[in-house]
Structures are given as structure tokens and as C-alpha cells.
Design a protein that fits this description.
The protein is mainly alpha-helical and 99 residues long. The chain folds into two domains: 1-53; 54-99, no CATH class. It has three helices and two strands. The protein has helices at 3-52, 65-70, 79-88; strands at 59-60, 63-64. Strands 1-2 form a two-stranded antiparallel ribbon. The termini are far apart.
Length: 99
Amino acid sequence: MKCQQVTCFFSCLAAAKRVATESQDEEDEYQEEMEGIQEQNIQDLSDELSEMSIQHPIMYGMHNICKMIANTKLTKFSIQMLQDICSFYPLEIKSISAK
């Protein structure tokens, strides 16, 4: 082989490595960008769901309704208070009759 052929071979080899490296860098950049977008979408969806769902404990004024139900203390409220709670949380109470 002549010196020029060897030089040309290594020059072409170096150029091919540069192209492969640049392509890999672009692919890595694209992958990082897509992961960032996906993480942001998950965060946005999580925020939306937390706004839409009922938060626990369910509170009415200073009363923790979940805790009161667990301790069977809800019966201490008057019927009017229970109706007010049901009205505060849009619950259908027309079909419920007082005993």
C-alpha cells in the first residue's frame, strides 16, 4: 500500500466515526427531550387527577368526616347538620327518609 492510500483509509475511517458520534449525540439529545416531555405530561396528568378526586380526609368545617365514620361518631350530628354536609358535597338525599 502506498502512503496516500493508508492516509486516505484512516481519513475515511475518522470521518465515519465522526458521523456515527454526531448521529448518536443527536439520538441521545432526542431521547432526553422525549423523556422530559413524558415526565412533564405525567406530572400534568397527576396534577389534573388530584384536582378532580376527593381528597382525604373529607372535611366539613372542622370535622373530619372519614374519622367520624370510622369511629361511628357521625350519629352525634343532627339531621339538619347531616343534610348540610350532604348539600355541601353534592350528594343526592331526596330518597333518604328520616327514622
